[in-house]
Amino acid sequence: MTLQRDALTSLGMTAGARLRELIRDGCVAMPGVFNAATARMVERAGFSAVYISGAGLCNATAGVPDVGLLTLTEVTLLSGYIARAVKIPCIVDADTGFGGADNAARTVRELEAAGLAGCHIEDQEFPKRCGHLAGKSLVEAEEMKEKIAAAAGARRDKDFLLIARTDARGVESFDKAVERAKSYLAAGADAIFPEALQGREEFRDFAKAVDAPLLANMTEFGKSSLLTRDQLAELGYQMVIYPQTAFRVSMFAVGQMLRELKSTGTQERWLNRMQTRKELYELLDYHPTK
Predict the structure, then answer these.
(1) How far is residue 72's CA from residue 62's CA, in Å, rounded to a whole number?
(2) Residue 277 has what pLDDT?
(3) Residue 54 pLDDT more than 50?
(4) Three-state secondary structure along 264-279?
(5) Would you say 247 and 59 are in contact if contact means Cβ atoms under 8 Å apart?
(6) Most exposed: 126, 180, 213, 271, by fewest CB within 10 Å?
(7) Residue 55, Cα to own-chain centre: how many angstroms?
């Protein structure tokens, strides 16, 4: 996959075109990131694409919950840093499109200009909630279709991947999620993100019912079973994201370190569990003169 990624980059393809080529070739795993340094680590680990988590940006950079508190300007700035830091394509969580149809159109234009390969827009009412929590509410399907059509029409790059996310499974029903997904494709979406499907059978049945590139969310502690990339590929999914895995692991480790630092007054026992200065500089392609 790394060789294919490098070949696509050398051809001068846009980020969106590179991503489309990758998902035609198989199921692409996209670890979630919350800053550019983590994205570089994803790239160094050999992954072919990056997912920029909306929850990660809210939680890690602003210290707020994932309830739509970041603006389009903030998300564009932060995701642009990430997209420019790596050579592999990045997609970003664009929440509800930051408003109505005109806002969704502007969202696509701004994210394209920042170097993103694609984004997903969801059909929740604002203020949105984490897709795996109760208490969500949806906009009418017609309103979401207007957003999708406006966003699709605003693209300057025809390959920018527009993914429609539906939260209908947790609010209405599985059948309504399928119905909404089909209508969003007809409105101009390129791919579908069915949020909070429950169990392998629902992932399978959704893929059988919806003929389009599909994105699966393998978030921890949520409604969905944690299936492997190979299992999802077999079921018919072209993309799988792990939105908060790196963030959760990082926060867990930092919490342990801080408790020990507070109790002992030294970080000595953590030296073999941290990134060295040399490793950080290598990650950042920084080569200071002696």
Answers:
(1) 14
(2) 95
(3) yes
(4) HCCCHHHHHHCCCHHH
(5) yes
(6) 271
(7) 10
Q: Which residue has the higher pLDDT, 195 or 128?
A: 195
Distance of alpha carbon 242 from alpha carbon 240, whole angstroms: 7
Q: Are 283 and 37 in contact (CB under 8 A)?
A: yes
Beta bridge partners of residue 106, listed in sequence order: none
Q: Are 83 and 36 in contact (CB under 8 A)?
A: no
Give the residue among 194, 193, 244, 253 at the shortest CA–CA distance from 219.
244
- Report if pTM > 0.85: yes
CA-based R_g, the chain, Å: 19
The residues near 15 (Cβ < 8 Å, ≥ 6 apart) are 83, 89, 90, 115, 116, 117
In this predicted model, what pLDDT tens digit does every residue of 182-228 receive, in sequence order?
A: 999 999 999 999 999 999 999 999 999 999 999 999 999 988 889 99
Q: CA–CA separation, 52 vs 78, rounded Å? A: 9
Backbone angles phi, psi at 159, to 5 degrees: -90, -5
Residue 95 is classified by DSSP as T
Contact 215, 238 (CB under 8 A): yes
Sign of CA dihedral 174, 187, 239, 127: negative
Cα atoms in the Cβ-side hemisphere of radius 13 Å centred on 259: 6
Tokens 């509800």, located at residue: 96
CA distance 175 to 182: 11
Domain ranges of the chain: 2-243
**pLDDT at residue number 289:** 74
Number of H helices, E strands in the chain: 13, 8
Q: How far apart are CA 270 and CA 276, in angstroms?
A: 11
Q: Which architecture, in CATH terms, is 2-243?
A: Alpha-Beta Barrel (3.20)
d(CA 51, CA 238): 14
How distant, in Å, are the alpha carbons of 127, 167, 233 from that of 72? 14, 21, 32
